[in-house]
Design brief:
This protein is α/β, with parallel strands linked by helices and about 450 residues long. The chain has helices at about 25-30, 65-80, 90-100, 110-120, 185-200, 235-240, 245-250, 260-275, 335-340, 355-365, 370-395, 410-425, 430, 440-455; strands at about 1-5, 5, 35-45, 50-55, 85-90, 125, 150-155, 160-165, 170-175, 210-215, 215-220, 220-225, 255-260, 280-285, 290-295, 400-405, 435. It starts with a strand and ends in a 6-residue tail after the last helix.
């Protein structure tokens, strides 16, 4: 298929989404004849820098393709690595285009405001002669199982807590709660403290607390999190940014505490169960939650918010309601992806049902052997195979742990098998280094809250 003057060879297309243009395939085809150097870097907290050397064509005929490539690449780097500043060297035209996009009224205004809020710095795009050198400080967190620990996993519909003594869970509890629809942050605080106390009652003491929570956390502070979606901004700053720090301190005093993104903790749980590193965890549920443990077993501090990173170059791709952008992972690797494809397969879903119920309806058809539902899962598997090759080109990952409600049951098996077939057929070199897998029984036993308990290191 031809897109913006670039011929993109694709052998495997999702049967229910024939317009899908794998972004990684576009990138590869675009770069095949590109020769004009372009350097891009993003800077995040603590002066950490992710630098990327690439190329564009620099011709009038392919100017639109150059701009599109740079736009998608910058967005992908920001949502993967995070950053409040973008450096561009090598092309004044690309600098002008990106700086116009990431300002008020620009096409990427949402992204600029989001990153400014996360890093508490004004977002900016800087033109330079040479971008800063790569610099990062991965942290070795987790796998600490000594002592008496609490692991807390804050989900959108339930909260889980475990009491762990020398690596063995002696108590676990799961409680339904409603954080996403509650405006009063005291509700969240009291729920967190209640869970802590329930676990503490089953141990002689509490040495440390580890917390897994959806959202973005910097220095254990809540920067952005859907759990506190309804909390007014003034209360968010006053009571939510340090909510986990306060809850631990008020309950147990000055003990070690680590708060981590739930995707990173999922990847950590997989690393602990497999006894391996270099793992990308992808949880397909309400959204696409992602975490990464690098080749040294460290958590990188990257955002890994790949739900909002682009994966599809199709100009007719579905828009994400939150960011307004099209072709991003959330519409492919979450319950939204299932709901999007179901009508195309001839499955009628009730408009009045909530998304989770719509997913259950498709899953029930799949368990009954309905070929329409199988087509939905095959289509997701094709998209996933292409996208894992894209992720591999940036992460260099080896293991991919596939989690979440979308991956449950027979549908998850179809997604996994189809994904492997696409990788083997179109990306043989990447396929040789990627091991997509579902969690085994050991991973299920470790669980999110137990892995969270291992986050802090005792003094």
């Amino acid at each position: 298929m031809n897109f913006l003057g670039i011929e993109v060879p694709v052998k495997n297309s999702p049967e229910l989404d024939r317009g899908f243009i794998p972004l990684g395939k576009f990138f590869s085809a675009f770069l095949a004849d590109a020769h004009e150097p372009l350097d891009i870097a993003v800077e995040r907290a603590g002066g950490e820098v992710a630098a990327y050397r690439t190329y564009i064509h620099g011709t009038a005929e392919l100017a639109e393709a150059d701009r599109y490539y740079a736009d998608r690449l910058v967005k992908l780097l920001l949502w993967m690595k995070g950053g409040w500043r973008v450096y561009i060297a090598g092309s004044d035209g690309i600098y002008d285009y990106i700086s116009a996009a990431y300002r008020e009224g620009g096409s990427r205004e949402f992204d600029a405001r989001f990153m400014a809020n996360v890093y508490e710095r004004p977002f900016e795009v800087v033109k330079c002669e040479a971008v800063p050198a790569e610099f990062s400080r991965p942290e070795a967190v987790g796998r600490h199982l000594d002592g008496c620990r609490i692991g807390f996993d804050a989900g959108g519909s339930d909260r889980k807590v475990s009491a762990v003594i020398d690596g063995e869970s002696v108590f676990s509890e799961e409680v339904v709660w409603y954080p996403k629809v509650t405006e009063d942050p005291d509700y969240h605080y009291e729920g967190i403290v209640s869970a802590f106390k329930a676990a503490a009652a089953h141990m002689p003491r509490v040495d440390a607390v580890g917390i897994s929570s959806a959202g973005i956390y910097i220095d254990n502070r809540t920067m952005v999190a859907s759990l506190f979606l309804k909390v007014p901004p003034e209360l968010f700053d006053a009571k939510v940014k340090d909510i986990y720090i306060r809850a631990v301190r008020d309950t147990f005093g000055d003990i070690p505490v680590v708060v981590a993104n739930d995707g990173d903790v999922s990847a950590l749980a997989g690393a602990m169960s497999l006894g391996e590193n270099n793992i990308l965890g992808i949880a397909m549920g309400t959204s696409e939650a992602v975490g990464y443990v690098d080749e040294n077993g460290n958590v990188t501090g990257w955002l890994n918010e790949l739900a909002f990173a682009p994966v599809d170059a199709n100009p007719e791709a579905m828009a994400d309601e939150w960011s307004g952008d099209i072709g991003c992972g959330v519409k492919y690797f979450s319950q939204d992806g299932v709901i999007k494809l179901a009508p195309r397969a001839g499955i009628e879903l009730s408009e009045s049902d909530p998304p989770a119920q719509k997913l259950k309806a498709v899953q029930a058809l799949m368990e009954a052997g309905d070929e329409r539902a199988a087509a939905v899962y095959r289509s997701i598997g094709v998209c996933l195979g292409h996208t894992l090759a894209l992720y591999h080109s940036f992460y260099g990952l080896k293991y991919v742990l596939l989690l979440g409600r979308v991956m449950s049951g027979r549908g998850g098996d179809i997604i996994l098998d189809t994904c492997k077939d696409v990788l083997a057929d179109e990306y043989p070199e990447a396929a040789a280094g990627i091991v997509p897998t579902l969690p085994d029984e050991k991973a299920r036993r470790i669980g999110q809250s137990v892995a969270a308990a291992s986050l802090p290191k005792l003094a």
